[in-house]
Design a protein that fits this description.
- By secondary structure, the protein is mostly beta strands.
- The protein has 4 domains: 3-13 and 673-765, Golgi alpha-mannosidase II (Immunoglobulin-like, Sandwich); 21-28 and 197-503, Glycosidases (TIM Barrel); 60-190, Jelly Rolls, CATH 2.60.120; 530-667, Jelly Rolls.
- Helix content is 14%, strand content 42%.
- Strands 3, 4, 5, 6, 7, 8, 9, 10, 11, 12 and 13 form an 11-stranded antiparallel sheet that branches. It has a 9-stranded mixed sheet with strand order 48-47-50-45-44-28-1-46-49, covered by helices on one side. Strands 2-14-17-20-21-22-23-24 form an 8-stranded parallel sheet.
- It is globular and about 90 Å long.
- The two termini are 24 Å apart.
- 51% of the residues are buried.
- The chain binds alpha-L-arabinofuranose (AHR).
Length: 766
C-alpha cells in the first residue's frame, strides 16, 4: 500500500520564519486599499507627475454655485503646499468621490472626519455628509468654524445612518464666505486593532489570519524606482519621509503611476507587523535606480548608508537614541525588534553591486545581529542572479532575495531548484514569487512547489507576491487578495499560503514514502520543432544574410524590414537540431528584437529577447499557454550598430551568439508531476506533527500515514479540493474555492487517508 512514514524525532531543518507576506504599494494596495482613509486626494496634492490624468482636483467636484481654485500662498506646511480655496454661497458644496469612484459607509459604524480650514467666516458651519447616488444621507455631522488667519484643524464623529458603497463625501457651506480647505479626511473608527490612522479591517484581518512570520515592505520596485533626491516629487521611497504627522508627509508619486500619501508609512508598517505577530522585514534602496541605471555618487553614499543605520535605530534603539526617541514620540516607546533588513530589490548590474558593500559593512559593524539581505535580480537564473549570489557570498550576506514570476509549467519543471545549494552559504529569501494566474491550478502548483521550499535547507524565508490588488487599479496580476471599496476576495493562492503559513511548524521532519515515487511527464516534446518568427521590439531596422541550417542542410531566407512590431514568419523546423543566423541593424527605437522559435501556436513557444525589457536583457523565455518564464538571462544593451546573431538549438538545448560571443546557454526543462508532493514538520512548541501533501494528479491517492516516535491521537485535516483546475474566486463569488476542515482519529499512530485528485491537504496530528 502507498504510505508516508514520518520520523517525528528526526528533524533536519529549523523552519524559523519561513512563511511570510510581501507588501508593496502596487495596485493601490495602500491608498485605496489597506490604508483605511476614505478620501482620495485629501490634501489636493495630486498632479500629473504622479499620473498624466491627475490634477490637484482629482476625485473632487463642486456645486455650480461656488467658485474654487487651488492656491499655494501660505500653505498648511512646506510638505503640503496646495490647498483648496472656495468662494461659497450658502448651500454650495464640494464633494469627494473616494477611491473606486465612491465611498463606503456602513449603518451604525463610526467615522472620524477631520479637516484644516482657514476662513474669516466666524461661526460658519460646514455640514459634513456622506450621501449615496440619490443623495440620501448615510452619515452626517457639523463643524463650527472659527475665524482665523491660520489653518485650524477640526475633527468630528459621524455615525452611519445607512449603508452605501456608492457614497460621496459632501462638505456643504452653510454661510457665504471664502474658505481654505486642506487635509480632508474621513476615517473609519473601526480599523484593524482600532488604531488611529489605521488599516482597513477586513483586509488587515485576512492577512493577520494567515499568521505570517514576517512581512516585507514597502516593495518591490517601489523601493528603488525614482529620483535620488528625497525631496523630488518622484523620489525613490525614502523611509524617513514617511514619519511624523500625516499632514507633514509628502503626498507624491508612487512608481506604479499613482499618488501615495505615505499615510501608511514606516511607523505604521512596523505597528502592523507587531499587531499581526509578524517580524518586520524592510527593504531599503541602495542609492541606485536600476530602471534608469542611475546611482548616487560613491563619495555621497554615506548619507544613504546613514539613513539605513537610522532605520535600525528607529526600530531597535531605546528612547535615549535619536531615532528611538522619534519612534517613542510617535507612540511606540518599546523597540520593534527588527531582525531582518533588505538592501536593494532585484537590482542587476554593477551600479548596485558596487554600492551594496558600503551598506553591508556599516550595518555589520554597528548592528552585527541584523540579518542582511542581498538581492539576486528579477529572475531565477542568469547573469543578475549569479552576480547577486557572488556578491552575497563575497560579503557574507545572511540571505539573498530571489524573485521569479513564471508559468505553472516552469514550477513543475523546476521543483528541485534549490537542491544543489550550498547550505552553508547565504540562505535564500524567496522574496517574490507566483505562478502567472489566480486559478485553482496555479494555487495547487504553488503548493507543490512550497513543499520543496519547506524541505530545502537553502530556503529560509518565502513570500508570495504581490499581496493586494484593488480591482479598479490593476498594475500587476496575479495578486493574492483582491478587493473593491467594500469587499475582499481571497484567491486560491491565498488559501494555499494560509494553509502553509498557519501550519508551518518549528522544524522540518524526515519522512519516507512507499509506492509514491512515480514521476509523470506532462509532455513528450523533447525537440523544439515548430515555427520561427521574428518581430521588432518597438524598433525599426533591417535583417539580412538570413541562414537556417537544419540537420545538416542549409538554406537562405529573404531579407526583412522590421517595422511596427509586425511578426515575420521565417520558416518551420521539423528536426532536432537547427541554427538560425542573420545580421541585424536597428534604425530607430531603443530596444531590439524578439525571435520566437519552437512555436507550436501563438501561446506556446520559446523566445529570444535581444534587447528586452528596457533594453537591458538578452534573455531566453519559455512561453507556455501564454505565460512566460525566463530561463536564461544576460545583461545586454542593443545599440545602433550591425550585429550578427545566431540561435543554435539541439533538442531543448539552446545557445545564442552575438557577434560570435556566446550569450545564452540553457536547456529548457520539461514539466513533470510527482505522484504526491509531501513535506513533514513538527511544532515543538505545540507538540504537534504536520504533514502537507499536494496531489497534482487526476487520481485519488489512498495512503497509510504512520508516525514514528511520540504518540498522536487525532488529526485536524484542512483541505483544498474538488475544484475545476480553471476555477477562480471573484468578488461576487468569493467562496467558490475555499478550504474545508475535518477531524479524524488515529489508531496506533496510523491513519489511512485518501488524498483527492488535484488537492492540497494539511494534516496536524496531536
Ligand atoms: O511584485 C511586482 C513587482 O515585480 C515588484 O515590484 C518587483 O520587485 C517585481 O519585478
Amino acid at each position: 500500500m502507498k504510505g508516508i512514514k514520518v520520523f517525528q524525532e528526526k528533524t533536519y531543518k529549523e523552519l524559523g520564519d519561513l512563511y511570510g507576506l510581501f507588501f508593496e504599494d502596487i495596485n493601490h494596495a495602500a491608498d485605496g486599499g489597506l490604508y483605511a482613509e476614505l478620501v482620495q486626494n485629501r490634501s489636493f496634492e495630486f498632479c500629473e507627475i504622479d499620473k498624466p490624468e491627475y490634477h490637484r482636483l482629482t476625485a473632487w467636484e463642486k456645486s455650480r454655485d461656488c467658485q474654487w481654485q487651488i492656491l499655494t500662498e501660505k500653505p498648511l506646511n512646506e510638505e503640503n503646499t496646495h490647498y483648496l480655496h472656495v468662494s461659497a454661497n450658502s448651500g454650495s458644496y464640494v464633494a469627494n468621490s473616494g477611491f473606486n469612484s465612491s465611498i463606503f459607509v456602513e449603518k451604525d459604524k463610526e467615522y472620524t472626519f477631520s479637516i484644516y480650514v482657514r476662513t474669516s467666516a466666524k461661526g460658519a458651519i460646514l455640514k459634513i455628509s456622506v450621501e449615496d447616488e440619490s443623495r440620501a444621507v448615510c452619515a452626517q455631522a457639523e463643524v463650527t468654524l472659527e475665524a482665523s488667519e491660520e489653518f485650524v484643524k477640526y475633527q468630528v464623529s459621524l455615525k452611519g445612518i445607512a449603508t452605501t458603497w456608492n457614497g460621496k463625501l459632501y462638505i456643504t457651506f452653510e454661510k457665504d464666505g471664502t474658505y481654505d480647505l486642506d487635509m480632508v479626511s474621513l476615517f473609519p473608527v473601526d480599523t484593524y486593532m482600532g488604531r488611529e490612522n489605521g488599516l482597513r479591517k477586513d483586509i488587515a484581518q485576512a492577512l493577520a489570519d494567515m499568521k505570517p512570520k514576517f512581512m516585507r515592505f514597502p516593495g518591490g520596485c517601489l523601493t528603488h524606482d525614482g529620483a535620488l533626491d528625497d525631496h523630488a516629487r518622484n523620489s525613490m521611497y525614502r523611509w524617513k519621509r514617511t514619519l511624523g504627522p500625516i499632514e507633514k508627509r509628502p503626498s507624491w508619486r508612487n512608481n506604479w503611476r499613482y499618488n501615495q500619501t505615505l499615510g501608511l508609512g514606516y511607523y505604521e508598517y512596523f505597528c502592523f507587523c507587531e499587531d499581526m505577530g509578524a517580524k518586520p522585514l524592510p527593504v531599503v534602496p541602495a542609492g541606485f535606480n536600476p530602471h534608469k541605471g542611475e546611482g548616487v555618487a560613491l563619495e555621497e553614499i554615506g548619507s544613504w548608508v546613514q539613513e539605513t543605520l537610522d532605520l535600525i535605530e528607529f526600530a531597535n534603539g531605546d528612547e535615549t537614541t535619536t531615532m528611538g526617541k522619534v519612534r517613542s514620540e510617535m507612540g511606540h516607546p518599546a523597540p520593534f525588534g527588527l531582525e531582518y533588513l533588505g538592501v536593494g530589490n532585484e537590482e542587476i548590474g554593477a551600479g548596485f553591486f558596487e554600492r551594496y558593500p558600503y551598506f553591508h559593512k556599516a550595518i555589520r559593524e554597528k548592528y552585527p545581529d541584523i540579518k542582511i539581505i542581498n538581492t539576486a535580480g528579477p529572475f531565477a537564473v542568469g547573469e543578475g542572479y549569479e552576480d547577486g549570489w557572488r556578491s552575497a557570498r563575497e560579503h557574507g550576506s545572511d540571505l539573498i532575495d530571489e524573485h521569479y514570476y513564471s508559468s505553472p509549467e516552469w514550477f513543475l519543471a523546476n521543483m528541485h531548484h534549490y537542491e544543489d545549494y550550498d547550505e552553508k552559504g547565504p540562505k535564500v529569501f524567496l522574496g517574490e514569487y507566483a505562478s502567472w494566474g489566480n486559478t485553482y491550478y496555479n494555487a495547487i502548483v504553488e503548493a507543490a512547489y512550497m513543499t520543496h521550499l519547506e524541505r530545502s535547507k537553502a530556503v529560509a524565508l518565502a513570500c508570495y507576491a504581490p499581496m493586494l490588488c484593488n480591482v479598479d487599479y490593476v498594475n500587476w496580476q496575479p495578486d493574492m487578495l483582491w478587493f473593491d471599496n467594500h469587499r475582499i476576495m481571497k484567491t486560491p493562492n491565498y488559501y494555499v499560503q494560509k494553509m502553509f503559513m498557519e501550519n508551518q511548524g518549528t522544524d522540518a521532519a524526515e519522512f519516507e514514502m512507499q509506492e509514491l515515487d512515480e514521476i509523470i511527464p506532462l509532455t513528450d516534446e523533447v525537440n523544439l520543432t515548430g515555427g520561427i518568427t521574428i518581430t521588432g521590439n518597438d524598433v525599426t531596422g533591417s535583417i539580412w544574410d538570413v541562414q537556417v541550417e537544419e540537420d545538416g542542410t542549409r538554406r537562405s531566407l529573404e531579407d526583412l524590414q522590421i517595422t511596427d512590431n509586425a511578426q515575420h514568419e521565417l520558416t518551420n523546423i521539423t528536426g532536432k537540431k537547427f541554427s538560425l543566423t542573420f545580421k541585424f541593424k536597428r534604425d530607430s527605437g531603443r530596444k531590439g528584437l524578439k525571435i520566437y522559435f519552437g512555436k507550436r501556436d501563438d501561446k506556446n513557444f520559446l523566445q529570444w529577447e535581444f534587447g528586452g525589457w528596457d533594453n537591458w536583457d538578452c534573455n531566453i523565455g519559455n512561453i507556455s499557454k501564454g505565460r512566460g518564464s525566463t530561463i536564461s538571462h544576460r545583461i545586454f544593451h542593443v545599440e545602433d550598430m550591425e550585429y550578427t546573431l545566431k540561435l543554435e538549438v539541439d533538442g531543448r538545448h539552446i545557445k545564442t551568439y552575438v557577434n560570435g560571443e556566446n550569450y545564452n546557454d540553457v536547456t529548457d526543462r520539461l514539466p513533470e508531476i510527482e505522484e504526491l508532493y509531501v513535506t513533514a514538520s513538527v511544532d515543538k512548541e505545540q507538540g504537534t506533527t504536520i504533514v502537507k501533501a499536494v496531489n497534482l494528479t487526476g487520481e485519488e491517492k489512498n495512503v497509510l500515514l504512520s508516525l514514528d516516535g511520540g504518540e498522536k491521537k487525532q488529526a485536524e485535516i484542512t483541505s483544498l479540493a474538488g475544484c475545476a483546475l480553471d476555477a477562480v474566486n471573484t468578488l461576487d463569488e468569493p467562496d467558490n474555492i475555499t478550504t474545508k476542515k475535518l477531524h479524524m482519529t488515529l489508531i496506533g499512530n496510523q491513519l489511512t487517508y485518501t488524498f483527492p485528485p488535484h488537492s492540497v491537504t494539511v494534516m496536524v496530528f496531536s
